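Supplementary Methods. Inverse-folding protocol.

Structures were first reduced to a discrete structure-token string of length 296. This string, shown here, constituted the complete conditioning input.
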């Protein structure tokens, strides 16, 4: 079973079909790994890689511009069976941060590397950053100009949010769980900002019972969203109720927050968001499916 998301946000209706097609392709890539008997960890990385290469999403190609016009990416991956984590943050022009995060997990030397250190580690495993500007698309370039015109750092949230990072959660045939999340950041943020997706417990979590990937930017730090959902599941809540309760808590603290989560457990999955859209696709025991989102 695998579920993927394309980020919670406000996107124009003309993009809906492209977003749904993108998450379908990602879920299919991850499901193919599971069908071959592959591990959940391999499946979530494969799914996220598809989304990092799709310019419709806010990770890898299509990442948001900082206020200096640069691109910084991040990602995290977590293995539920061992609770080992690898993550990178604020890595300039790194097109495939999920691969670097996975390598960091396997190396086991550190959990999170940020900034130039993340880029240096990527070089050590044979990955060079993209050329400056190569991850910028016409859509993200135009969005950055719109936010600048609307006040830059003081722009209203309605002008800033254009969909967040991407993620995947999976359960393999051995019952093991994994989660992966990748992000290109929020438009017009300061360079060096560490995104929620790069931190275990905030944007990514997996243990022996549940795997969670979230979207939502800085607001989700206030409730440690991914771990808050997992903790509720551990206390006996259903997957959907756990996600709902955590998102309601977030909404109470930050009424304007746009956020969402996908969750996979031992026998089921759930997806839920605050805000108008969070494209989701899945391949479960019934078959494949997709939607533009599941509102709270």
């Amino acid at each position: 079973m695998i579920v993927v998301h394309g980020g919670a946000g406000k996107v124009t209706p003309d993009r809906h079909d492209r977003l749904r097609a993108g998450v379908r392709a990602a879920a299919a890539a991850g499901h193919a790994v599971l069908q071959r008997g592959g591990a959940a960890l391999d499946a979530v990385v494969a799914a996220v890689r598809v989304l990092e290469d799709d310019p419709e999403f806010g990770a890898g190609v299509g990442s948001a511009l900082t206020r200096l016009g640069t691109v910084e990416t991040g990602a995290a991956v977590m293995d539920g069976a061992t609770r080992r984590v690898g993550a990178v943050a604020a890595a300039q022009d790194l097109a495939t941060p999920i691969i670097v995060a996975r390598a960091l997990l396997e190396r086991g030397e550190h959990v999170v590397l940020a900034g130039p250190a993340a880029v240096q580690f990527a070089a050590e495993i044979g990955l060079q950053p993209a050329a400056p500007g190569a991850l910028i698309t016409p859509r993200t370039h135009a969005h950055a100009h719109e936010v600048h015109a609307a006040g830059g750092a003081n722009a209203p949230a309605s002008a800033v949010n254009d969909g967040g990072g991407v993620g995947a959660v999976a359960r393999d045939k051995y019952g093991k769980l994994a989660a992966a999340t990748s992000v290109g950041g929020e438009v017009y943020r300061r360079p060096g900002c560490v995104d929620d997706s790069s931190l275990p417990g905030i944007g990514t979590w997996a243990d022996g019972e549940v795997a969670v990937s979230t979207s939502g930017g800085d607001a989700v730090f206030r409730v440690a969203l991914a771990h808050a959902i997992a903790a509720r599941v551990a206390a006996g809540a259903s997957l959907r109720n756990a996600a709902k309760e955590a998102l309601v808590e977030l909404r109470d603290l930050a009424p304007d927050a746009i956020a969402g989560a996908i969750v996979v457990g031992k026998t089921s999955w759930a997806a839920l968001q605050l805000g108008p859209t969070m494209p989701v696709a899945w391949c479960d025991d019934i078959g494949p499916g997709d939607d533009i989102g599941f509102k709270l």
